[in-house]
C-alpha cells in the first residue's frame, strides 16, 4: 500500500565529509531499517581536519523542502539538528508546529562536545522559546545541559536537578548525555527523565578514540527511527544508546584525523 513503509525525517545541516549532520542521520535511518528523508538548513565544507566554510539555506528554500515532504509522504517521527540562526529556527517552528511529522526529537546543536559555542545568543534564546515547547524529547550534551540549566553538573544530584529544570522549558522528555571529553572516564553515563516522572541512568564503557564525529546525530536519529517503528520512548533510548556505543567501538578507518563512527552494524539490538 502507498506510504506504508516507515518514513522519518531529519531537518539539519549537510556535512560534506559524511561524518555528521544530515548524512549521519540518513546512514543511521538506513541502519535502523527506516526510510529517511532530509530537509537541509545549512551546508558545511569540511573534512577530518576541521570545518572550513559554511552557508545557510534561504528560509524560502527550507519552506519549499518541508512543503514537498508534507505534500507526498507519511512521516512518523523526525528530528532537528543544526539550526544556525533565529530566522531559520523561526521558519522551522512555523512549518512543524502543526504536528504533521509525528514525534519530535530535538538535538539542540548549541555547544560542541568539547564546550565550544555554536549559536549566537539570540538564536540560542529563540531555540528555547520556540522549539523546546514543541519537542517530545531533547538530547543535550553535557555542556549544553550546563548552559541550559545554569548548573555546573559536578554530581549526579545536580544532573537530576538539571533535567527537571530543562523540562520546565517545555520538552516532554529529557536525555542529558554524559561527559565524554575526559580520557580518565571509565563509563559515559546519560540521565533520562521521562514525561511520566520516571527516570533512569544508562551507561556504556568510555572508548578513547578520535573517531566520534556524529555521535549525537546518530543517537538522536536512532531514537527517531525506533519510535517510528513503534518503540516506547524508553525502549527507543536504550536501543539507541547501545547502537551508538557499538558504532563507536567498532571503529572505521576513514580520514586522517577526527573520523566518523561506524554505522555498518548489522547485529540485532
UniProtKB/TrEMBL annotation:
Residues 15-262 form the Pyridoxamine kinase/Phosphomethylpyrimidine kinase domain. Its EC number is 2.7.1.49, 2.7.4.7. It is an enzyme of class 2 (transferase). It comes from the Bacteria. Pathway: Cofactor biosynthesis; thiamine diphosphate biosynthesis; 4-amino-2-methyl-5-diphosphomethylpyrimidine from 5-amino-1-(5-phospho-D-ribosyl)imidazole: step 3/3; Cofactor biosynthesis; thiamine diphosphate biosynthesis; 4-amino-2-methyl-5-diphosphomethylpyrimidine from 5-amino-1-(5-phospho-D-ribosyl)imidazole: step 2/3. Keywords: Kinase, Thiamine biosynthesis, Transferase. It holds the Pfam family Phos_pyr_kin. PANTHER family: HYDROXYMETHYLPYRIMIDINE_PHOSPHOMETHYLPYRIMIDINE KINASE THI20-RELATED, PHOSPHOMETHYLPYRIMIDINE KINASE. This is Hydroxymethylpyrimidine/phosphomethylpyrimidine kinase. It comes from Companilactobacillus keshanensis. The lineage of its organism: Bacteria, Bacillati, Bacillota, Bacilli, Lactobacillales. The gene is thiD.
Amino acid at each position: 500500500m502507498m506510504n506504508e513503509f516507515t518514513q522519518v525525517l531529519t531537518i539539519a545541516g549537510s556535512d560534506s565529509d559524511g561524518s555528521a549532520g544530515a548524512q549521519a542521520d540518513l546512514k543511521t535511518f538506513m541502519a535502523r531499517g527506516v526510510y529517511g528523508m532530509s530537509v537541509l538548513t545549512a551546508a558545511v565544507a569540511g573534512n577530518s581536519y576541521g570545518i572550513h566554510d559554511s552557508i545557510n539555506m534561504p528560509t524560502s528554500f527550507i519552506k519549499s523542502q518541508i512543503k514537498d515532504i508534507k505534500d507526498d509522504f507519511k512521516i512518523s517521527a523526525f528530528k532537528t539538528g543544526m539550526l544556525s540562526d533565529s530566522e531559520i529556527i523561526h521558519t522551522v517552528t512555523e512549518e512543524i508546529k502543526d504536528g504533521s511529522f509525528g514525534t519530535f526529537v530535538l538535538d539542540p546543536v548549541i555547544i560542541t562536545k568539547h564546550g565550544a559555542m555554536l549559536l549566537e545568543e539570540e538564536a540560542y534564546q529563540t531555540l528555547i522559546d520556540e522549539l523546546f515547547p514543541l519537542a517530545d524529547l531533547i538530547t543535550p550534551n553535557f555542556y549544553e545541559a550546563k548552559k541550559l540549566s545554569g548548573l555546573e553538573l559536578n554530581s549526579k544530584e545536580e544532573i537530576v536537578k538539571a533535567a527537571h529544570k530543562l523540562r520546565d522549558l517545555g520538552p516532554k522528555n529529557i536525555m542529558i548525555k554524559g561527559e565524554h571529553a575526559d580520557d580518565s572516564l571509565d563509563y559515559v553515563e546519560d540521565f533520562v527523565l521521562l514525561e511520566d516522572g520516571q527516570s533512569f541512568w544508562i551507561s556504556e564503557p568510555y572508548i578513547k578514540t578520535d573517531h566520534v564525529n556524529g555521535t549525537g546525530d546518530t543517537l538522536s536519529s536512532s531514537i527517531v527511527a525506533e519510535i517510528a517503528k513503534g518503540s516506547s520512548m524508553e525502549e527507543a533510548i536504550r536501543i539507541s544508546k547501545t547502537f551508538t556505543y557499538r558504532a563507536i567501538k567498532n571503529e572505521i578507518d576513514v580520514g586522517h584525523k577526527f573520523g566518523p563512527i561506524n554505522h555498518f552494524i548489522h547485529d540485532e539490538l
